Amino acid sequence: MSTKNGNGILALLAGTAIGVGLGILFAPDKGSKTREKIKGGFDDLKNDSLSKWNTLENETMKKFSKTKDELKETVEDLLSHSSHEAEDAISFLEEKLAELKKQTAKLQK
């Protein structure tokens, strides 16, 4: 995901730089107008970059949130299952202890 978006941003930056360079070379306007156009191009680039960054940030946050929720659910399920298993083991051990106490009581008589 990051490589794909990173390549897209690099391509956008390279395309903008090439476009600005060609615009300057072939500009029939005065220097002040050309500078305004360049500034406008950089403003557009900045806005596009911010928009892509915000989109990437939102997508990443959604994925991490989903992963976090799934992990939390998995841990809760594991703890719940482990708790039931521990209760079963304790019950089994209590039964065996009671049997051993009975056997010991018989031997002591």
Largest sheet: none
DSSP strand tally: 0
What is the terminal separation in angstroms? 76 Å
What count of helical segments does DSSP give? 2
Structural class: mainly alpha
Task: Provide a quick synopsis of the model.
The chain has 109 residues and is mainly α. Helices cover 94% and strands 0% of the residues. It has helices at 2-25, 31-108.
What can you see in these coordinates?
With 109 residues, this protein is mainly alpha-helical. It contains two helices and no strands. α1 packs antiparallel against α2. The longest helix has 78 residues. The termini are far apart. Pfam families: YtxH (PF12732). It comes from Flavobacterium paronense. InterPro entries: Desiccation-related_membrane, YtxH.
Characteristics of this structure?
109 residues, mainly alpha, 2 helices, YtxH, membrane, coiled coil
Blueprint (SSEs and pairs):
Elements: H1 2-25, H2 31-108
